[in-house]
């Protein structure tokens, strides 16, 4: 997290984000980009600890109340110190702002969307012993933006991601991992807490 905020300060000083963005015709068309750090509160019952990772995001606002969020996440987690899990998320969401006012410092929102998900589980002592899967997922959640300047905000988001494809379940036999696959959708997934910073770069229309 410290490296993330040092990067933000460097970029902010270079682009002078304290200067307001010139708005053409309302909030629609505002394009922004930033970085995020994500914590996965659980993955599977066999996973020993939380997943953590970094990613990037960009937003394209459609209207005063509607925004879109496009993101990439890279997450890693431990499996009982015998193996490890890696997850990649590439997706998008629609963001709705139910409460708006002038010069708003805190801007809450609801979010729902879809992503493509790649997961790989690998035994630490034998990298050739692994299983992987591609799937898609849907997610929904709530969050809020905290306005730092007219062009820079900090975002706190909580969302649940439900997988729609196959699931891999690791089991520990002795000091080795074995894997089993379960087909079809279920409520099993990730509960994700995301911290992010975004910069308003352009007003496209």
Overview of the molecule:
- The chain has about 200 residues and is mainly beta.
- It contains 1 helix and 10 strands; from the N terminus they run H-E-E-E-E-E-E-E-E-E-E.
- It has one helix at about 1-15; strands at about 30-40, 50-60, 65-80, 85-95, 105-125, 130-145, 150-165, 165-175, 175-180, 190-205.
- It has an 8-stranded antiparallel β-barrel with strand order 1-2-3-4-5-6-7-10. It has a two-stranded antiparallel sheet with strand order 8-9.
- A hairpin with a 6-residue loop joins strand 5 and strand 6.
- The two termini are about 35 Å apart.
- The mean pLDDT is about 85.
Q: Shape, please? A: elongated
How much β-strand is present in the residues?
A: over 45%
Going across the biggest sheet, name each strand in turn. 1-2-3-4-5-6-7-10
The pLDDT mean sits at 86
In short:
With 205 residues, the chain is mainly beta. The chain is built from 1 helix and 10 strands. Helices cover 7% and strands 62% of the residues.
Give the key terms:
205 residues, mainly beta, 8-stranded antiparallel barrel, elongated
Question: How are the secondary structure elements laid out?
Answer:
Elements: H1 2-15, E1 30-40, E2 51-61, E3 66-79, E4 83-96, E5 106-123, E6 130-147, E7 152-163, E8 167-173, E9 176-182, E10 189-203
